[in-house]
Specification:
It is a single chain. This protein is of the alpha/beta class. The N and C termini lie close together (9 Å). The protein contains 7 helices and 7 strands, in the order βαβαβααβαβαββα. Helix 1 links the parallel strand 1 (2-7) and strand 2. Strands 3-2-1-4-5-6-7 form a 7-stranded mixed β-sheet.
Length: 187
């Protein structure tokens, strides 16, 4: 049985989708939710699914990385799933979980990735640049923002009348459909 931790900073719809998808799975248990925001929507969703929640500040993640790794190892966590987690993962953390940290990004990387590119900021840039398509990227995390090995990409059309909201809906639909399936490849 693989023990996973889901890291999320926002609403947590992807996290909740994973809780549901893997609820009765005998291969993986989502044991823990980690967030950096004590007001994030993810907290309520985690409680609904009876997941333990650990809140960690940006400063703690950066300055107490080794202690945090130790905590996760004691919890026997062997897969880290970033579902809208907006802090950069420190290099020591990446080293501690080699090829075991998976991220989802709401665009077709390498386009629209990097620092500051998250959520609606990505969709806004895609629309501004009159892109004809966008999509999702699920990838492994390495020391550089949004640059790890790509596991899966899925595309959607961007139409002339698309807004940030309509594009966000299309992306969310792709994320909810494909993220669990991509994670299954690690089980
Ligand atoms: C998702 O669209 C995810 O791809 C994005 O944050 C959203 C979280 O939504 N991640 C990034 O932008 C990472 N750079 P959710 O909280 O509803 O799951």
């Amino acid at each position: 049985m693989i023990n996973a931790a889901v890291f999320a900073s926002g609403e947590g719809t992807n996290a909740e989708n994973l809780f549901k998808f893997f609820a009765n799975d005998t291969r993986i248990k989502i044991k823990l939710v980690v967030t950096n925001k004590d007001t994030a929507g993810i907290i309520g969703r985690a409680e609904k699914y009876k997941k333990n929640v650990q809140i960690i500040s940006k400063e703690s993640l950066e300055n107490y990385t080794e202690q945090f790794i130790e905590f996760l190892k004691l919890e026997k966590i062997d897969l880290i799933i970033l579902a809208g987690f907006l802090l950069k993962i420190p290099p020591a953390f990446v080293k501690a979980f080699p090829n075991r940290i998976i991220n989802i990004h709401p665009a077709l990387l390498p386009k629209y990735g990097g620092k500051g590119m998250y959520g609606n900021k990505v969709h806004s840039a895609v629309i501004e640049n009159k892109e004809k398509e966008s999509g999702i990227t699920i990838h492994l995390v390495n020391e550089e923002y949004d640059k790890g090995e790509i596991i899966l990409q899925q595309k959607c059309d961007v139409l002339e009348n698309d807004t940030i909201e309509t594009l966000a809906q299309k992306i969310q639909k792709l994320e909810h459909e494909h993220f669990p399936k991509a994670i299954e490849r690690f089980l």
